[in-house]
User: Which sequence fits this backbone?
């Protein structure tokens, strides 16, 4: 830390958490803070954390909604282990978040909310703001956001209750002052959102934001301000993107690159619903969307569309995957291309619908009856969902197979900056349908990919039947024992052949080997890479490898694993990848599990890695 | 593409729709007659052969696609309506025929059938009703009568059966009809009418399972009983039946009753006149309640409503409207969004 001019202290990163009632607009201010930081040139990563109930009783612990953002002048791969500053809009938010705030951290509270009734709802017997411990332990900043907002809006025609609802932007303005954030992106947001429809509201929020910012100038306790330089990133055009957004765009891009119409069928489910909503807004791209009567129907509709030669997609979460299993088996035996996205959440059953977990890997591998291997890929970050959608489409179309694309709630809702790709650089995914001039043999295979030719309804002379019964090469129903074994092996060999099309794996660290390889997959990428990078800076012989392809594994994986003395596999499940790696490579890997509905902290991983080394 | 065949030689016939596979239903199964009727119907519809798609679920009837030389999809139990919806929405130019049974369509797949019908895609649904599970060797089905003794109900079923036509009407079906595997001419006529209807056509076919529920419809469609126990619906004509054509259906309050023409001063003007185009579902619902033995069982088109948009047309139209309002989607602009920034 270096003291700078104008009370600015130069730091390389910071973590801010906004917490309040689920009706307080915490997600909105978190998003705005993120936009402003991205606009300022910082690298960012976010973690929205909200309850399963849309409006739990106001003021209760169950209704607390939070949004954490880390921003910095260096590469930021996670939303941060713990906040440097916590904004608590009510006692319940304070109670459920205070444990995460380290000693000396900045604690900003809305004093107006610390009334008897709210204190009781949060389970406080006395007002914690009157507790000297709180003052001594943290940098406490007490502001009556509610009444200061009302005062700032004294001229506004809004009703008093509506004025008070602008307090989240007052608080945001104050935090903008503390961290020297630009106001422009937020002012533009107000204009875009309400400028035409509700100009009074746009004006009120503008006033509230500016009043909060100006308050910082006059307050003794906010004298210290922080400054964070721009992050050194590649030149280009950037935007902020969440995993679900990236998935939507990736699917649209994949359809364009494959020269196929995109048909998406889905059933609303947390946290995958934004994919259905996002694609439904893109009808001018020729995207057809169907909101099905249930998860099974969504899968059937997609498979029907696939049979007619469309790029067909479903997205769901774990419980929906359970329902789709029988249809995925049908897609496997009929060898039709299909993308099934699973935005994972905490399980089993309904589990933790708004919390994160990566516990559906074994479900993806094995949930079907019979031997029915399916390619599985997993996105490692929000923006990686775009690339994974394209990769899933490539595999599905090239190999004529359903593909499971695993995302998770953390990367689906979290956001990061994204270097926007140039559409002309995207890969060509086009694969022709069967040739009408040749005799059509339904299960005749390409010798290199083992994929069958697909003929589609409307093609003259290629009429054929597909279905769930085992077939021979000509497409006839067959109960022949040897045929069934051959077809079973061919389907498995075809999925395994995908590995031949994968690029070499990239080890972060020492490709030639070392003491510890940290092997990961999915949304733990940021935390694992941060921990390994930090330890390598300190000179520890640790490397990491993050898998995108989970079935089949890359061809070079066994070789890489054998070069390290120990392989540590951190997962937000009970050790699912560990089980697969052990069974395939006969390596006694060390499994590190966490199933608390929260991502790994970098510090947790660092400690575990150090423990493994020692 | 193959060389176009001259117009006069292009006419399709029944043989064009016979698949090379052996048909493997039990000898005497009613499915043979239905297959025959479909293979006779298809060449007369003016649809190119490559545009037909036959989709089924699971059960004896659902083997149907394998015996049709068209594009076909034998899917999974109860889910054929979902695949049919996907096919039709994806490519509205296809002529989609769905084959299901009383178990497949009304038990495991009841939910999907409801939603198919209410969405109203132009799909023709053939529900083979034999009131038994055949492929699993003889358990009662959701259309089996109360008290039905089967392997799974040794002292009789306690389930109240579902009425397929009332189910379809409850799902706001725009086309509801009934025919029988015993009546080739009537089947072909009904299938042609279903094809002509734009929207989901629901046809219940009385079908005989010769092994596990033989002669279940005999009291209605059998040679001896047909005249007195069947009622053939004809548009604009009074509901008349009987070997002597002297019986009819009259409404008394909300209830139908059988009357004899010429008795107690009853004449044709007292009878219900068949009108399949009335939008009020009360009339077809009333027809659906005419059941053996108190009433003759109606066959023909119970309901055909014109004018409700098909699902695929509505979907296509939204795409066209969005396209004309927003222009052709620009992928690069979509990816860039409205809040991008430049790093030099």
Assistant:
């Amino acid at each position: 830390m270096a003291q700078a001019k104008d009370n600015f202290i130069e730091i390389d990163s910071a973590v801010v958490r906004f917490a309040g009632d689920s009706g307080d607009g915490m997600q909105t201010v978190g998003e705005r803070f993120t936009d402003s930081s991205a606009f300022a040139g910082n690298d960012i990563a976010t973690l929205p954390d909200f309850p399963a109930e849309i409006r739990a009783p106001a003021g209760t612990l169950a209704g607390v909604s939070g949004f954490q953002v880390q921003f910095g002048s260096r590469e930021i791969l996670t939303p941060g282990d713990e906040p440097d500053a916590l904004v608590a809009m009510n006692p319940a938010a304070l109670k459920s978040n205070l444990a995460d705030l380290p000693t000396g951290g900045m604690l900003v509270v809305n004093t107006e909310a610390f009334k008897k009734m709210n204190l009781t709802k949060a389970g406080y017997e006395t007002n914690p703001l009157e507790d000297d411990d709180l003052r001594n332990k943290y940098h406490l900043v007490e502001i009556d956001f509610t009444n200061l907002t009302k005062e700032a809006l004294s001229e506004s025609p809004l009703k008093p209750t509506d004025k008070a609802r602008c307090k989240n932007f007052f608080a945001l303005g104050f935090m903008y002052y503390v961290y020297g954030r630009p106001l422009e992106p937020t002012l533009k947001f107000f204009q875009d959102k309400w400028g035409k429809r509700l100009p009074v509201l746009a004006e009120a929020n503008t006033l509230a934001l500016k009043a909060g910012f100006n308050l910082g100038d006059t307050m003794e306790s906010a004298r210290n301000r922080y400054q964070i330089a721009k992050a050194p990133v590649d030149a280009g055009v950037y935007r902020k993107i969440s995993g679900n957004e990236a998935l939507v765009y990736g699917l649209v891009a994949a359809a364009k690159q494959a020269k196929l119409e995109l048909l998406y069928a889905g059933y609303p489910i947390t946290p995958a619903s934004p994919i259905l909503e996002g694609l439904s807004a893109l009808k001018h791209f020729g995207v057809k969307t169907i909101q099905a009567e249930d998860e099974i129907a969504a899968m059937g509709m997609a498979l029907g569309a696939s049979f007619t030669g469309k790029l067909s997609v479903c997205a769901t979460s774990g419980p929906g995957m359970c329902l789709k299993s029988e249809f995925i088996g049908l897609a496997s035996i009929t060898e039709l291309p299909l993308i099934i996205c699973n935005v994972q959440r905490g399980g089993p059953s309904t589990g933790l619908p708004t919390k994160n977990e990566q516990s559906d890997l074994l479900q993806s591998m094995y949930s079907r009856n019979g031997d029915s291997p399916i390619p599985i890929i997993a996105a490692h970050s929000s923006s990686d969902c775009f690339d994974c959608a394209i990769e899933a489409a490539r595999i599905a179309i090239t190999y004529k197979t359903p593909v499971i694309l695993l995302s998770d709630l953390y990367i689906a809702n979290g956001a990061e900056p994204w270097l926007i790709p140039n559409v002309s650089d995207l890969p060509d995914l086009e694969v022709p349908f069967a040739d009408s001039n040749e005799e059509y043999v339904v299960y005749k295979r390409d010798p290199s990919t083992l994929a069958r030719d697909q003929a589609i309804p409307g093609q003259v002379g290629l009429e054929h039947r597909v279905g769930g019964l085992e077939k021979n090469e000509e497409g006839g129903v067959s109960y022949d024992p040897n045929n069934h074994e051959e077809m079973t092996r061919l389907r498995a060999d075809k999925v395994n052949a995908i590995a031949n099309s994968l690029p070499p794996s990239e080890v972060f660290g020492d490709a030639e080997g070392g003491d510890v390889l940290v092997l990961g997959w999915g949304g733990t990428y940021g935390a694992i890479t941060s921990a390994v990078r930090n330890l390598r800076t300190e000179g520890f012989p640790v490397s990491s490898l993050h898998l995108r392809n989970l079935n089949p594994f890359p061809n070079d994986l066994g070789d890489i694993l054998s070069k390290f003395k120990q392989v540590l596999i951190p997962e937000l499940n009970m050790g699912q990848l560990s089980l697969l790696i052990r069974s395939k490579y006969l390596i006694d890997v060390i499994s590190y599990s966490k199933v608390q509905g929260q991502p790994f902290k970098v510090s947790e991983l660092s400690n575990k890695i150090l423990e493994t080394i020692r | 593409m193959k060389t176009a065949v001259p117009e006069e030689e292009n006419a399709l016939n029944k043989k064009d729709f016979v698949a090379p596979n052996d048909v493997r239903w039990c000898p005497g199964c009613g499915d043979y007659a239905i297959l025959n009727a479909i293979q006779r119907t298809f060449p007369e519809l003016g649809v190119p052969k490559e545009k037909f798609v036959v989709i089924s679920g699971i059960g004896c009837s659902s083997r149907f696609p394998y015996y049709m030389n068209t594009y076909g999809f034998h899917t999974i139990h109860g889910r054929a309506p979902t695949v049919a919806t996907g096919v039709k929405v994806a490519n509205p130019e296809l002529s989609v025929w769905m084959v299901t049974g009383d178990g497949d369509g009304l038990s495991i797949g009841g939910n999907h059938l409801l939603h198919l019908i209410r969405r109203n895609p132009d799909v023709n649904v053939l529900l083979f009703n034999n009131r038994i599970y055949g492929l699993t060797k003889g358990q009662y089905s959701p259309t089996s009568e109360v008290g039905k003794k089967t392997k799974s109900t040794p002292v009789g079923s306690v389930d109240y059966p579902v009425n397929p036509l009332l189910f379809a009407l409850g799902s706001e079906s725009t086309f509801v009809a009934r025919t029988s595997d015993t009546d080739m001419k009537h089947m072909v006529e009904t299938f042609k009418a279903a094809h002509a209807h734009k929207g989901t056509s629901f046809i219940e076919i009385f079908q005989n399972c010769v092994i596990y529920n033989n002669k279940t419809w005999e009291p209605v469609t059998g040679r001896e009983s047909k005249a007195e126990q069947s009622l053939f619906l004809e548009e604009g004509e009074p509901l008349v039946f009987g070997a002597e054509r002297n019986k009819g259906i009259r409404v008394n309050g909300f209830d139908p009753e059988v009357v004899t023409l010429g008795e107690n001063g009853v004449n044709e003007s007292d009878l219900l006149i068949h009108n399949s185009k009335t939008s009020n579902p009360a009339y077809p619902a009333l027809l659906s309640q005419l059941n053996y033995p108190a009433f003759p069982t109606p066959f023909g088109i119970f309901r055909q409503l014109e004018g409700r948009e098909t699902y695929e047309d509505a979907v296509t139209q939204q795409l066209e409207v969005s396209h004309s309002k927003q222009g052709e989607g620009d992928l690069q602009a979509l990816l860039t969004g409205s809040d991008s920034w430049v790093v030099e």
About this structure: DSSP finds 21 helices and 23 strands in chain A. The CA atoms of residues 175 and 385 of chain A lie 31 Å apart. The longest helix of chain A spans residues 199-218. Chain A touches chain B through 72 residues (CB under 8 Å).
